[in-house]
Amino acid sequence: MTLRITDAPVDDLCEVWVTFSEVHLVPGDDGGLIVFDESNTDSLPATIELTALDQGISVALLDDEPLPAGDYNQIRLVIEDSSDTYVIKKDGNGGCEEVETPLFCPSCTQSGLKLNLDGFNLAADGLVDFTIDFDLEKSIILPPGRGYLLKPTHTVIETEVASTQFTGEVTDSQSTPGDPVEPTECTVYVYEGDVEPDDNCSNETDTAACDGIGAQSYRSAVLEGSESPYSYLTGYMQAGEYTLTLACGDDDPETDDDLTFIGTTVVDAVAGLNEVDFDISDPAP
């Protein structure tokens, strides 16, 4: 079995360091829990800076580890609640603070983070290879009066069949560049299927904050470059139908925001690079 970690970008934080100490596998035959930790693999514990793992980059938590053949119901990740799990905040002047701010994941230190995976079967002499794609924009919250909390929002994909990426250019064609839409405040959002895009919103402390929220993005990609045309490259996903849009504005995952969506298009994506360009033009009179 091979198990990898990747992520989508997050605003307002320079770095997100998370220490994974154990990987638990739950067999489907009611057998005993299978635990990988520092006693039986050199890859754990793993302290990983998640913001560096965008655009398809990943790090292996397990790398070709032997497992008994059979059915497995669940995979869990134990995240260490220690000084090695923290964030580095932006300082508001284009730089990063020097202080390490603790990051807590109350549900991850004992029973572990349960992955969104409907079990799997490992044949004799077979191989399973999964990538866990964290969406940090939705996963890190700062409740009033509390520190940074990690409530991991993630997708698990079969690495060997996740061969599709989106790439393209974003051109600022406004009469006054950056006005009224500032491209550096835009992100390419990718949704599964043919849907009407909506902003990211997941609020466990205020359940009414996201009432009526629509489709949630499956992947996202920040714009690269300092001037138009900008570029972007998403992480890997499986071939299929996706809705892409350029989402511009501040997207707070704790509230239902009114974002500007530009160039929404539905694409039947194939393996390899799928090119979708966006153009930011003057608003209609």
Low-pLDDT regions: none
Mean pLDDT: 86
In whole angstroms, how far apart are the ends?
57 Å
Number of beta-strand segments: 22
**Binned strand content:** 35-45%
Question: Biggest β-sheet, characterized?
Answer: 10 strands, mixed
Radius of gyration: 20 Å
Share of helical residues: under 10%
Structural class by secondary-structure content: mainly beta
* Overall shape: globular
Order of helices and strands: EEEEEEEEEEEHEEEEEEEEEEE
Number of helices: 1
Structure commentary:
It is a single chain. The chain has one helix at residues 136-139; strands at 2-8, 13-27, 34-36, 46-49, 59-62, 70-79, 86-89, 101-104, 113-114, 120-122, 129-135, 140-141, 148-150, 154-158, 164-172, 186-192, 219-222, 230-233, 240-248, 260-269, 272-275, 278-280. The chain has one helix and 22 strands. The longest helix is centred in the middle third of the chain and has 4 residues, at 136-139. The chain is mostly beta strands and 285 residues long. The strands form four sheets. Strands 2, 3, 4, 6, 7, 8, 9, 10, 12 and 13 form a ten-stranded mixed β-sheet that branches. A four-stranded mixed β-sheet has the order 5-1-11-14. Strands 15, 18, 21 and 22 form a four-stranded mixed β-sheet that branches. The protein is globular and about 65 Å long.
